[in-house]
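Hi team,

Below is the intake form for uroporphyrinogen-III C-methyltransferase from Salix purpurea. Please confirm the fields before the structure is written into the shared record.

FORM ID: S-0412
PROTEIN: uroporphyrinogen-III C-methyltransferase
ORGANISM: Salix purpurea
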Amino acid sequence: MALVYKLQAFSSFSVSAQNYNKVTSLITNPICSLHYKNSPFTEKHSTERYQRDRWLYQDQVELSQYQSSPCSLPSDSESVRENDIALQLPELKKLLEVLKRKRESCCGNDGDGEKCGPGNVFLVGTGPGDPELLTLKAVKLVQKADVLLYDRLVSNDVLEMVGPDARLLYVGKTAGYHSRTQEEIHELLLSFAEAGATVVRLKGGDPLVFGRGGEEIDFLQQQGIQVKVIPGITSASGIAAELGIPLTHRGVANSVRFLTGHSRKGGTDPLFVAENAADPDSTLVVYMGLSTLPALALKLMQHGLPANTPAAAVERGTTPQQRMVFAELKDLADKVAQEELVSPTLIIIGKVVALSPLWPLSSKEASCLMEAV
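The structure came back. Fields below:
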């Protein structure tokens, strides 16, 4: 099995006492911050993450005691990541053997040489955060899966639906810390599938909208593994609906465009699209664009998008922790900074934003509205 060989390679890690202590300290003293405290999502070193994944560490460290004192990620986060993986390896190996034996017993192998086929992989979209936005098919798969690999933007409420016998493994990524590289995620999916498991890859939003689902499908299909995609409500649709913003509207916006606010390392500057995206008759939705918003807004205006174009930025949309900023394009970045919005934040730019009932009204419009009521 693919991961077995990877595990053997990882086994060569020398887990020094110093780095071991750093990792176990993260497990017993999860990283805290004002942003993590009430987050509906899985933060990289939150208490919830280690409670769910405690099966991976049960031979190394006792997880029954948690402290709430604030702490911070060590500067050498890569060594923390590598040693965290090394701590997980024994239990990952055990799980693969258990899954393999379960598959063989279920197949009723009678010694005729017939081998059991691999399991299936399901890429499941969990929507923007509200668990009630899941599809019925997604809920059924979450409840019956053997192994679930979940991302950072899968909400805690969704993860509460996981079956009691399933194994959860966090593989989330955030700026400056990738718990697993994409290549490592590929190998994990392949190995669990080869062991005969029903594998669910949980992704926030939709797996095929900035979710790297296409990369995982391509890799697994090349290895002969069947992959099925269960779509989720992408953040653009879910959050726009929450705010009452029609992404398209006759006579206002005849198209909608989804953009990423950052590129992969070494990739093309995502802001190069500003010239073609500066269309007053289109709606622009920017994912992962918090850090590049000031530059993006400036380039859009330089390429002809009016400075007074309505815009909104929404943090943690569709969850109880949702926060939002409405402003004209020229003021949006400053207001976002003033309100200290954090990731994940979705940005919607276009005339349709003014159709939201939440768009700030002028005093005259407000008076008319009150008289109508």
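SUMMARY LINE: The chain has 14 helices and twelve strands.

Thanks, M.
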